[in-house]
Model the fold of this input.
Amino acid sequence: MAEKYDVAIIGGGVVGSAIARELSRYDLKIIVLERAADVARGTSGKNSGVVHTGINVPHGSVKAKFNVAGAKMFEQYCADLDVPFKRVGKVIVALGESEVPDLDALKAKGDANGVPDLEIIDRATLKKMEPNIEGAGALNVPTAAIACPYSLTIALAESAVEAGVEIKLNSPVTAIKGSEGAFEIETPNETVSAGLIVNSAGLNSDKIARMVGVTRWRVWPCRGEYVILDKRVGGLINSMVYPVPPKGGAGLGIHITPTTDGNILLGPSADYTNDSDDVRTTAKIRRQLISEATEFLPGLTPRDVITAYSGMRPKLVPSKVGGFGDFVIEEVPEAPGVMQLVGIESPGLTAAPAIAEHVSTWVRERVSTKTNLNFKPKWSSVHRSREETLSVVDRMIAEDPGYGEVICRCEMVTKSEIVDSINNKLGAESLNAIKYRSRATMGRCQGGFCGPRIVDLMIENGKSPESITLNGGDSWLFLGTTEDLRAESKAKRAKQKAEAEKVEAN
Ligand SMILES: Cc1cc2nc3c(=O)[nH]c(=O)nc-3n(C[C@H](O)[C@H](O)[C@H](O)COP(=O)(O)OP(=O)(O)OC[C@H]3O[C@@H](n4cnc5c(N)ncnc54)[C@H](O)[C@@H]3O)c2cc1C
Done:
């Protein structure tokens, strides 16, 4: 008889992982089913990492409620989980005089949503705050912050596992049968029984909803491409620099955002697509991002770019309609026992802590719970020796010499941090699993120097070369040994020769 869970959470993004961590405070049997080879491989790993204040969302919307509540919780949340967080503030810049009146409307929206300390500043004040930025004026949003979105998702998931939650990676949900109290959730590996379901499947949340008979939503994927700038130019801005949002556009416009690690992001673009997995990056958008960013920041050059990525917005409004689409956070009459989280686009990262509290209350109204004594209020996934003082690093090296051996020179990641990442709590096995935990390969050389050394460490720690992938699935790093390949091509040539001789003989 299969084990029965109180709650099955579908999707290990920041929302599903936050819910798992929040529910792990209680003595419940919880499982997370994630289709990818790690958590945070969907939208949660590929966004701007901005803790939005609530300035851009319509007053009274579900988005506004969870955005503002989540933003208030975020700093403590990151402190508890040892996740990088910086309150850098934001300026929304009017490029020309014609955009200055738009700043008043933005301020009014922010005031209505309870965003504190908003202030319209003139050209001279903007220049003092951001000497490299050109603009006619700005709305200063000093409470806006940045956090590391994938580190947060990983920390939430790993702390939940530490408290007893099960997370099954490589487990795409393909069908759901049954009803509240007795759901049967199918994946290619197994069938999972659960009393309640949380649908936090991001871009596939409409498909999961359809599996339980709810057909009212359709998710429209909308790709947002970014480029990442070298840390060398990280000092060009002090705070986030946003344009006045384009009217009726699919996003907030291309912004210039510092990351918690000292890089700068340019992006995102906004392009609707039919394929939610099509997270390609393009030369066209790369050129457009650099060109638009140089309007604000004339000092930028294409040589400052180190790499690119893209994230996909799960929009509930198609491109032809455009405009505002609210979050869906509700249990609907067609599917009792299922909490539907659909259309959780921006500011879903910011809202995640508040959404998790809301879903936890919903669960506890249906299942009686006691406190889980294994829950740890504080958690740290991987130490970051580069952020410590020299005396602390000396102590770390004395206890573990691996902290004295730098493997990734661009990002100053040590052997012990990589080994900790290899032996992660979720059993995530790919090279990307190590990258997103330790930051190794994220610097200027993009793994050119440290990549082979990391592979060596994976092998030293028990992985076979044939099993190593970049990102799970069939993204194998090695096709075989050079010897195998040589033998294979020799056999192929011999076969071709024999066939040619046969044709000639005939
Ligand atoms: C370009 C861009 C910029 C953004 N910037 C910000 C920002 O600065 N600040 C902010 O607050 N928000 C931002 N967001 C929004 C934020 O990233 C999302 O709202 C948030 O990550 C959503 O988290 P999630 O867990 O709902 O979805 P996801 O991260 O997509 O997680 C869903 C998970 O479900 C899994 N899944 C899908 N189908 C199945 C299945 N059948 N079975 C099992 N698992 C499945 C996926 O693999 C995925 O891991 C941005 C989004 C984009 C695209």
Notes: Residues 482-505 form the longest helix (24 residues).
